[in-house]
Amino acid sequence: MSIWALYSMKGGVGKTAAAVNLAYEAVQSGATVLLCDLDPQGAAAFYFRIRAKKKFGRKRFLKGGKHVTQNIRGTDFEGLDLLPSAMSFRNLDLGLDDRAKNKNHLKRLLAPMRKDYDHIFLDCPPNLTLLAEHVFRAADYVVVPCIPTTLSMLTHQKLLDFFSKNRLKREKLAAFFSMVEQRKTMHREMIAQASERGARFLTAQIPYTTDVERMGWTRQPVACVRPRSKGAQAYRALWAELQTLLAE
Amino acid sequence: MIARSKTYCLTEAHGREWVEQLAPNRVVALSGEEKTVRYFDTFDWRLYRKGLALMQVGRDAYLQRVSDGEIRGQTEISPEGRFWWTLLKGAVRDRLRDALSVRALLLRAKVRQKACAFGVLNADEKTVVRLFLTHIAPDGMTENGQSLATLTLREVRGYEREFEALRRCVEKLDVALVSDGAFERVMHVAGCVPRDYSSKLKLTLNPEATGRAAISDILKCLHAAMRQNEAGIRADWDTEFLHDFRVAIRRTRSALSQIKGVLPKDAVAHFKDEFRQLGRATNRLRDLDVYLLEEKTYRAMLPPALQPGLDAVFSRLKRERERALHDMVQVLNSPEYHALMDSWAAFLHGEQAGDAPAADAPAVALARGFIWKHFKRVLKRGRAIAADTPDEALHDLRIDCKKLRYLLEFFASFFPKNKMDELIGHLKKLQDNLGAFNDLSVQQWELMADLNAALPRGQCEDRSLCAAAIGGLVAQLHAQQRVVRREFAHAFAAYKKKKNVRLYRDLFGK
């Protein structure tokens, strides 16, 4: 089983869209998948029309075991389950801080789920807090969407530095360009520069398309509504490329 | 993490509209498909006995776990070959190699399956319960099939309450829960009874039965076994049909000669002779089958340089097998064979005229006497065998063991199962040793006898290579046979242990 964290320090870069669509692609290839929504916004649950049970919140989540498994809910797609988030997840950091000196609590929390699923996707909130550190340790791969803009690239550099400083494995990082608009000179140049500087970015890119934006309306993965659209194809290619990391 | 599900039997009247009425305005059709599904297994249901099913849809075949329908792997079944070694290389083939051994996969059932999937939605238009309306109909393989419609409710994880509510709603209606599993349902639809054949003798005798009633039941069962295997021999599906056919003949002959004084003497003499002749007619084909099954082992015994020497031997054996099969089928089609089977059935089912001294004696007492007598004979003959005793003594002991084994199996239902299993287990170990010894000596003898016939009439070089290969093989077989012979002492020592003897005395001794 492998754990994929969809992470970015910046908000609005297409994390949740990537998490939802990649999870869907994984299920299409016959795998069983759990999507874990760690973001208190609850956008992943929204896309799947799932509401968390009323009593579920940060405390139960951190207790782990059956407190977590009881709150997993099946999506409309067989093999794809979702652990919804709750508003109280905004304080997940506090709970983690109380709990353990080492930063492996999230990893331990996910361990019992390993036998039930082939892949676990973590949809993370956009900040570099204690929770993020737990995520970095729990995940086998940290998948980072980057919009090809100057600021985004700076932020990504900071993340790389953070990994080095905290002795986290930089090989875990798999960045890809998200919301790419080929007609913008700026986007094209940023992408060209990134490869010149030798930064490791995946080949697959997610374009800025209305298909992805419309997910808010359709509340379904892109490939489910329009399987041949650009967006759907892009996520399929991204998932295929991520799979090759496993083989390495 | 298997989702809970409930399946109910429906009638033809329960269609799509009926399903949609279960939760008005909240049921949406998700998908529908119609397909022909074929199920494969061996004649003796080896896959089913291991909890597996092999089903084929279109070109793809899936290995499925019977208990929960989980797909364990995928393969393809070609129409030409249906043995494990003709399947695509992979995990399924490896799994089936152990399960199937030398038996062929046969088409056991064929059904048309129409399935519609529905989702029950909540206010957010989220699927909270899944419904499957399935209609399965037999696809003309047999006449005793019967179509079946079912509704399955499947829980979506995290929506237990919605599942329960719908379940209660369905159960208020006039539908019944199905009692058996999905695989068994399909078999029932196809008019097929899993495990309707086993090469093991499984019969339960009436403990109050008289000697004559008991032997009649045993022989009827063996008669049925012969008849069941005829089709497979004719079609040459695999080698085990003939093997089982021969075992049934041997058991029949053994019953006729071991269970004395129960059937009229002249009838016994007549049928014993008939079945001996029938058995003899099967010998050649079986010998050739054994050779050909061992081809790989034989080749592996020789150094690579000598292996091509066996090509001529095996191609001749294959040609000869074709002739032997043709002869065997002729026997099965002959009026003499049909007359024998019919008169035998008439004899077993009719009022058996003619007196016999022990006909009305209780079968249990007779069984005890026969088994005890034979056990003592096996012990006596076995004890007499020393390291320098001629090989013939082992052959005789092998025959005695076989007779004892058949008696134990005939009457097993009279005695406690665990004890009989133990006894048969011990005897089997001894038989394995004796059987291996016998096979090795027969093979050597046959190869030597074949030496002239097997040599190709060609180049001098070919002839000498072939002769060298046969020579090498005989030497190997001889060395193996010596090892087996040395092991006999251990095998017999284990068999004559006090504990085993006491077990026999307690069950069968006077």
What does this structure look like?
The complex is a heterodimer of chains A (248) and B (510). In chain A, 44% of the residues lie in helices and 13% in strands. Chain A is an alpha/beta fold and 248 residues long. In chain A, helix 8 (150-165) links the parallel strand 6 (141-146) and strand 7. Chain A has one domain (2-247): Rossmann fold (3-Layer(aba) Sandwich). Chain A is globular, with a radius of gyration of 17 Å. Chain B has a nine-stranded antiparallel beta sheet with strand order 5-4-3-2-6-7-8-1-9, with helices on both faces. In chain B, strand 4 and strand 5 form a beta hairpin. The longest helix of chain B has 38 residues, at 417-454. The radius of gyration of chain B is 29 Å and the shape is globular. The A-B interface holds A 48-51, 53, 71-74, 76, 78, 81, 116, 219 and B 1, 3, 119, 124-127, 130, 156-159.
Question: Could you write a compact summary of the structure shown?
Answer:
The complex is a heterodimer of chains A (248) and B (510). Chain A is of the alpha/beta class.
